[in-house]
Each structure stands twice: as structure tokens, then as C-alpha cells.
Design brief:
It contains 21 helices and 20 strands. It is of the alpha+beta class. It has five domains: 75 residues; 116 residues, OB fold (Dihydrolipoamide Acetyltransferase, E2P) (Beta Barrel), CATH 2.40.50; 198 residues, no CATH class; 39 residues, no CATH class; 151 residues, Ribonuclease Z/Hydroxyacylglutathione hydrolase-like (Metallo-beta-lactamase, Chain A), CATH 3.60.15.10. Strands 1, 2, 3, 4, 5, 6, 7 and 8 form an eight-stranded mixed beta sheet that branches. A five-stranded mixed beta sheet has the order 14-13-12-11-20. A five-stranded mixed beta sheet has the order 15-16-17-18-19. Helix 14 runs antiparallel to helix 15.
Length: 690
């Protein structure tokens, strides 16, 4: 058994396994028990190393004990970094909170209808007075509020109590609560005008304070020199990782063409900067001292770039990865790229174990691993005859390698695959090189009047041409395979098939072909199971989309959707609240209707069930009507008692177009009348198999 070549890969893999176990089973073992267990295994490890140091089995025994200790350390690290268990955490407060002081720890992030900032609660005011507390809170302000100006570290006084985040209300909807939990955020508040004020300027003028200042200055420099909002948004996204201002059409075009990766500062951008640095430092030679000089200068400039972007998590992740790559060369000849990548991931996960749940983290490392392992073998399949063809073929090989490594995750998370990614990447990768270098130069010379003006004009036109190219690729027929659903298990199976295929090519053994066949059969079985259990079954869903009516019958790939006129044309709400459930149910053929202009009620008969939908206040009720499901919208029913002796129903559903107060009132009446009632606002979507 060879333990040496990929030592760091094994350590990182086992550590990740411990992290994942704790994330999914946090209550499996207590903090005290895990700590004792780690100390016991570490003690046995060192004793075994000393007692069996001359034994031929020492490598196996010490390896098993050491990796077990690493696994336990991964589990323990999650428990240590989980802030919700702190005694002073906001989750532990049972008394009403009237106000709180909060320290801003992120810059303002522009959303469609609001600004978002993350803050750290330091004090809360309850009936007992001011008390020390701790919690990260996601704060949202209307766009008319000047929340952009306060600096990192400024302290605000906010009226009210942060609301504990709620789980997803609709089936298969994106779980925002879980997403923020992985950032140790458990509360949010929508802050209105007059509910906040700045009470103290930042006293903590450390590295992060100046990094945020540098980021704001960089964004202002780009805004000053590039007038077009669309092109400016691309430059700030590609150079600084600031995605504010990217419109939906532009995002859809980049996604459909397979160029979305350039809009988030990642390993691609840092690799461009690192490649430029290596090129300029090449004259220093290849001696060990020269390698150290190159490594140190590279680190200074890479971390300087990270500082310019405000030390955002995605940039830190990429810079950390290349920090290990830069240092690996002068340290020793035996270091391989896989151990280097594993070491960077290991260090990042020690700092923040929840990064393993970040889609960006997963895609970044998978793409880099794919490029490292597959790019050269793919490149060797064809020998280009000219320099231009060779350059294009190299870019194509990088794109193919990255897509092979990440396509399964793209299907799982984004439900799509860009067909013409190779065409788009032929110009978007070199184009991003120009924008990145030009953007950094633009920021650095922004104080020089004529130079910055003309450079800004050149950048604006270049990005405009780049965008036009992306829109052209998007308009090519069948540019995007979309609305694809695969389960988490199917995603793992696809990874297994790809891995088995790579092993087959490498080792040329028939066993790996057998693994591919087994994987394909398993994937087919899971698809058939999904077809029988989800797609072919008839379901009725009343969604929770606050302020709207939204209900849907789905069966065998067809959907009959009823909603108000606003929700039917609201692509963002449909994508966020409904689309995932439609994908799971295989509902591709959508028949959307609204009946609000047709009377006050509607009766539907489906699958042997009768549905009565009341959407306007009634002056006269039908009599002697027996129904299975009564749906009430828009506070249309004055009282349940109006229905006595006129309408008989089995289930009452109050949809999300009703007010909270009205829903509570009708619920109480239903309880007193011993009627089954489901308030969508309170309990989430109502789903039933018919």
C-alpha cells in the first residue's frame, strides 16, 4: 500500500468526511465526547508511533489512527465554528427585544428592491435593560435609505426584534434558511425608514476596514470612468466580484452561453493574474532563490488584488488556492499539484468548515481538478498545425476538462447545460483577460484625467462587443439544455461514471468498464423511479407566494396553473417559488390561467375531486353544494358561518393572497366548527396526491 504520494489528499478527504458528518448529524456526539475521543485517538497514535516504530506494520497502524484523528477533528471543528450554541447568542433570548446595537461587517449589496448588509449584534435592549449579545443578522433596507455610506465597523441602533429565519414554505423551494445557516446567520430584519440610526463610527480600523474602503474606492473609480450601466456592471463583476447592477437578460445570456463563471471572481481570474506575474518574473531564472523571490512577489501582488476586492470570500478562496501553488515550487521538488490543492482546501475548511457546502467552493475545486487531470490528455488527442489553431485548441481543452468535471453539479444545482460553451469560451476567456487587466489598470490610473477617460471609453466598447458576442451565442438554436432535474443520488452516480471513465482510460482495465455499465444502469433505474413516483402521479399544490394566489395541478408532465394576473407574468417569483417543484414533478407543459375577471367563484372537477375557489366577496352563495376542497382568496369570505347549510366541504385552504389577520380569524372559526383548515401563510404550501 502506497501512503506517500497523495498524503495531503487523504488528510483533506478524511477531514471533509468528518465535517460533512457533523453538518448533517450535529447531535450525533456531544462536544465533550468528541473532544475526549480526539484526545484518546491522538494519544494512541503517538504511543503507537513510539512503540511500533520498528514494526513493518507501523505505517498502516499509524495511518489508520492518524486519519481517524483527522476525521474526528473535522467533526469537532464544525461544532467549534457553530455560533448558534453560544450562551449569549440571540437564539437563546426568550424575552422580547425592543432594540439592538449592531456592527456592520459587509458592504452594501444591491438587490432588486433593497440593499442588504450583514451585521453583528453586540447589545440588545429587553425589559431588563441593555444586555450583551451575539448574532449575525441579515439586514434589508428600502432603496431610498442611505445605507451605502456607513463604513465597515460602524455601529447602528435599530428598533425592533430580528426575526428568526424560516424554512422554505414550498416543496423543493430553495431553502434560504439553510443557505444562511452555513454562514452562521439565523436572523433577518427588514428595516424601515425611521427605525435605525448611526450611533458610532468605526473604531476598529483594521485590515478589513481598509479593504472595504479600497473596494468602495475601486467601484467608484469604475463608475466614474464607464458611463454605460450594463458594461460597468460587467467590469465590476469581473474585476472586483461586485455583482450589483447585472440585469436578468445579461445573466441569462451568460448562463446560456456557458460564460457565467467569468462574472464571479474565482480561480480563473486569479490564475490570469498569477500567469501574468510568472511571465514577467521569468527573467529572474529558475534557481531556488529566484523561485522564492517570484513566490514572495506573487503572494504580495495576489493578496494586494484580494485586498482591492474587499477580501471577499470567493476571492480569498481563489487566492488561498494559488498561495499554495506559488509556495509549493520553492519548497520542494516532490510536491504535486493534487497535494497542493488538497492543502489549500484543508486550510480553508479549518478556517470555515461550512465552505464545503458552498456551490462556489465545490465548483472551483472540481473545475481546477478537472483541468489539472484532463487538459493535457485531451490536448494530446490532436496536434494543431498553426499557432492560432494551437491557442484555440488549448482554450477548448481547458473548457472541455472543466465541463466534464462540473456538468453533473451544473445539472443538480442549476438544472441546465450550455451546449455551445466551447464557442463562447474561445472569446470570453481571452476577453476576460483583457477586461481583468484593463479594469485593474483603470482603477490604478483613475486619478489621471485624460488617461482614465480614454481607457474607460476603450473598456466600455470592448465589453459591449464582448456582450454582443455572448448574446449571439445565446440566440443560436438549442444553445441551452434547460429544466433538467436530477436528484442528489443521480448527481453522485454521474460523478462515479465520469471517474470510472477516467480510470478506464488511465488503467485500461475492463473492471472500470463494468463500473460504468453499473453506473448507467443505476442512473436509469433512479430516473425510472422518479418517473413513477413523481412525474406520473397527480398532485395538487397551493403555493405560498405572499400576496398572491398560486395553485397548480400536475400530472404526467402537464401543469394546469391558476394564479392572479401578477404572479402569472412574474418570472422571478415563479422561478424562486414554483420552478423547482415543477421540475421534480416533470411539469414541462404549462397551461397558466387567471379567472379573476370571471365572476366571484370557480368550480373545478379533477381526478374525482371537486374544488371550489372563492376569490371575490359573495353577495349570494350557491346552495346544497358538496365539495372536497374549498379555497379562499383575497379575504373573500366574511365568515365560515355564511356557508352553514349551504356548502359542505371536507378541507378548507386559505391561500397566501389573504392577510395574516384574516387567516387567523378564519382559522379560529374553523376550529370552533371542527373543520379542517390549512393556512398557507402559516403552514406553508398545501400539497395532496389525487
Amino acid at each position: 500500500m502506497q501512503w506517500i504520494p497523495f498524503a495531503m489528499v487523504r488528510i483533506a478527504a478524511v477531514f471533509i468526511a468528518g465535517v460533512l458528518l457533523c453538518i448533517y448529524q450535529p447531535d450525533l456526539i456531544s462536544f465533550e465526547s468528541v473532544t475526549i475521543l480526539l484526545l484518546v485517538f491522538m494519544t494512541i497514535y503517538f504511543l503507537a508511533r513510539s512503540i511500533l516504530r520498528k514494526s513493518p506494520e507501523i505505517k498502516l497502524v499509524s495511518g489508520v489512527l492518524g486519519l481517524t484523528s483527522v476525521f474526528i477533528a473535522g467533526y469537532l471543528n464544525v461544532l467549534l465554528k457553530n455560533e448558534s450554541g453560544r450562551e449569549d447568542h440571540l437564539l437563546q433570548f426568550n424575552d422580547p427585544i425592543f432594540a439592538y446595537q449592531i456592527k456592520l461587517i459587509t458592504p452594501a449589496e444591491e438587490k432588486e428592491r433593497s440593499f442588504k448588509r450583514i451585521g453583528l449584534v453586540i447589545k440588545v435592549r429587553t425589559e431588563k435593560g441593555w444586555q450583551s449579545s451575539y448574532a449575525k443578522v441579515a439586514l434589508y433596507w428600502p432603496k431610498d435609505q442611505n445605507i451605502v455610506d456607513p463604513d465597515y465597523g460602524d455601529i447602528l441602533l435599530i428598533k425592533g426584534q430580528p426575526k428568526v429565519l424560516e424554512s422554505a414554505y414550498n416543496p423543493h423551494e430553495f431553502d434560504f434558511k439553510e443557505f444562511l445557516r452555513f454562514k452562521n446567520i439565523y436572523h433577518q430584519q427588514f428595516v424601515k425608514s425611521g427605525e435605525w440610526k448611526l450611533i458610532q463610527k468605526s473604531e476598529d480600523k483594521g485590515l478589513l476596514f481598509y479593504a472595504h474602503r479600497a473596494r468602495n474606492w475601486s467601484v467608484a473609480a469604475v463608475k466614474k470612468t464607464i458611463s454605460s450601466s450594463r458594461e460597468r456592471a460587467i467590469v465590476t463583476a469581473l474585476v472586483l466580484g461586485v455583482t450589483d447592477g447585472l440585469d436578468t437578460d445579461l445573466l441569462n445570456a451568460y448562463a446560456a452561453s456557458g460564460a457565467m463563471h467569468v462574472l464571479a471572481v474565482s480561480g480563473l481570474h486569479v490564475s490570469i493574474i498569477y500567469g501574468i506575474l510568472i511571465f514577467f518574473f521569468k527573467p529572474l531564472g529558475k534557481s531556488n532563490s529566484a523561485n522564492w523571490i517570484v513566490a514572495i512577489l506573487s503572494l504580495v501582488l495576489l493578496w494586494g488584488y484580494a485586498f482591492l476586492t474587499g477580501l471577499s470570500p470567493s476571492v480569498l478562496r481563489a487566492v488561498m488556492m494559488f498561495t499554495f501553488v506559488a509556495v509549493a515550487k520553492p519548497i520542494g521538488r516532490s510536491t504535486n499539484i493534487y497535494n497542493t490543492l488538497a492543502a489549500s482546501a484543508f486550510c480553508l475548511l479549518i478556517y470555515d468548515p461550512y465552505l464545503i457546502m458552498s456551490v462556489g467552493f465545490q465548483l472551483s475545486y472540481l473545475a481546477v481538478l478537472g483541468i489539472v487531470y484532463m487538459q493535457r490528455p485531451i490536448y494530446n488527442l490532436w496536434e494543431a498545425k498553426s499557432a492560432i489553431a494551437n491557442w484555440a485548441w488549448q482554450l477548448t481543452c481547458v473548457s472541455i476538462a472543466a465541463q466534464i468535471a462540473t456538468f453533473a453539479m451544473g445539472f443538480y444545482y442549476f438544472h441546465q447545460f450550455p451546449v455551445y460553451f466551447m464557442i463562447a469560451n474561445l472569446f470570453i476567456i481571452p476577453g476576460s483577460f483583457v477586461v481583468l487587466v484593463g479594469g485593474i489598470l483603470l482603477i490604478l490610473v483613475s486619478a489621471i484625467p485624460y488617461v482614465s477617460t480614454y481607457l474607460g471609453i476603450a473598456m466600455e466598447w470592448f465589453v459591449r462587443i464582448l456582450n454582443e458576442g455572448i448574446f449571439i451565442v445565446e440566440k443560436i438554436p438549442y444553445s441551452l439544455i434547460s429544466d433538467v432535474y436530477i436528484s442528489a443520488t443521480q448527481c453522485y452516480v454521474l460523478f462515479g461514471i465520469v471517474l470510472a471513465g477516467l480510470m478506464l482510460i488511465h488503467f485500461k482495465k475492463i473492471e472500470w468498464m463494468s463500473m460504468i455499465v453499473v453506473g448507467v444502469l443505476l442512473f436509469s433505474f433512479l430516473s425510472w423511479e422518479h418517473l413513477l413516483n413523481d412525474v406520473k402521479k397527480s398532485r395538487w399544490t397551493v403555493y405560498r407566494v405572499q400576496g398572491h394566489t398560486a395553485m397548480e395541478w400536475s400530472e404526467k408532465g402537464h401543469s394546469y396553473f391558476i394564479g392572479d394576473s401578477a404572479i402569472i407574468v412574474d418570472r422571478n417569483n415563479i422561478k424562486f417559488h414554483l420552478l423547482s417543484n415543477r421540475l421534480v414533478n416533470g411539469a414541462m407543459d404549462i397551461d397558466a390561467q387567471t379567472n379573476f375577471n370571471q365572476g366571484t367563484l370557480q368550480i373545478y372537477h379533477r381526478d374525482g375531486k371537486t374544488f371550489l375557489w372563492l376569490y371575490r366577496k359573495l353577495s349570494k352563495l350557491p346552495t346544497k353544494l358538496s365539495i372536497d376542497y374549498l379555497i379562499v382568496s383575497n379575504n373573500s369570505l366574511m365568515s365560515l358561518k355564511m356557508l352553514e347549510e349551504k356548502i359542505s366541504f371536507k378541507h378548507l385552504i386559505l391561500d397566501s393572497s389573504n392577510s395574516i389577520r384574516y387567516s387567523e380569524k378564519i382559522e379560529k372559526e374553523a376550529v370552533s366548527m371542527k373543520k379542517e383548515c390549512h393556512s398557507v401563510l402559516k403552514k406553508g404550501a398545501f400539497v395532496v396526491e389525487l
